[in-house]
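As noted in the main text, all predictions were made from sequence alone. Below is one such record, for Olfactory receptor.
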Amino acid sequence: MTCPRSGCLVSRPARASSDSRVVWTGRRDKEMTNRTAVAEYVLLGLQEHRNLETVLFVLCLGIYGVNVLGNSLLMGLSVLDPRLHSPMYFFLSNLSLMDICGTSSFVPLMLVNFLEAQRTISFPGCALQMYLTLALGSTECLLLAVMAYDRYVAICQPLRYAEIMNGQTCVRMAVLSWGTGFANSLLQSLLTWSLPFCGHNIINHFFCEILAVLKLACGDISLNALMLVVATAVLTLAPLLLICLSYVVILATILRVPSAAGQRKAFSTCSAHITVVVVFYGTISFMYFKPKAKDPDLDKIIALFYGVVTPSLNPIIYSLRNAEVKAAALALLGGGLLSRKMAYPLCCSSPLSCTVG
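Prediction:
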């Protein structure tokens, strides 16, 4: 017997409701799968080139040692030698600390992974590594611009140098550089880890670099890409523009100095910083603007050079191109610096006595 029209009308919505529950449940399960928490990540590195990884282990271990020892020596000399108690060496100490922290955030684990068959990192470890590398890289760009401004004031406005670059101003500029870099990294990290990753956990890199992590996302990353472009323009290109403008004015001022000896002395105070800027931005430009390599492992090696080698060059550059640092190092080796520091009253030792560098 056929059911009456009213009965058919009642039964059909019931089946539709049941079907909708199945569809809704299926979508919910799919979303839950997409957002499955990943407990750990696998860092591929150069797993297909084990012999090359052995060579990289030896090289990176030596370079990391030079980085830590060299930058620690620079910071120590800046504290011990009263001749280095000036804004330039205060900012240089910040740069040295940044280089040590930046490489220490990923190099030790990377060295261990070079010797391990299974290279994994926990989710909190990966998030912290990405946060620190991005934060310290952004901060370095800003700090290099601050150091260029310090050189501009020292050469172009020497009579007002002590007034402009006083201790309070130097500390504020350093704090602003660190704070801006870490705030930007926090924003980028929150946007990245809010994406769905669909359980993907294999990172094709030596460490948790933000672009490598974004490649794992299975959602829309257009907002992330936009924010990265904006951050790059504000925190990388804008400081570079300020550095270039500062040195254009500095060069014009130096060329107006009547004596050749005065020109050489003025330029020598800037040469180390110029070299560091060229190495830093030159490596970034080569890494991001070069044609994409056919072998992706080559891109990873270039990124490794930027992250490990470049920070270790800063103490070498400042040691070779700065007479005050060389004199302080020789005094430390001869034992005269420590004895002079012990005889120098602690209350009279100012880390930011504004002498023109």
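The first strand starts at residue 40 and ends at 43. Confidence is low (pLDDT under 50) at residues 1-35, 342-350. These features were considered when defining construct boundaries for the mutagenesis experiments described in Section 2.9.
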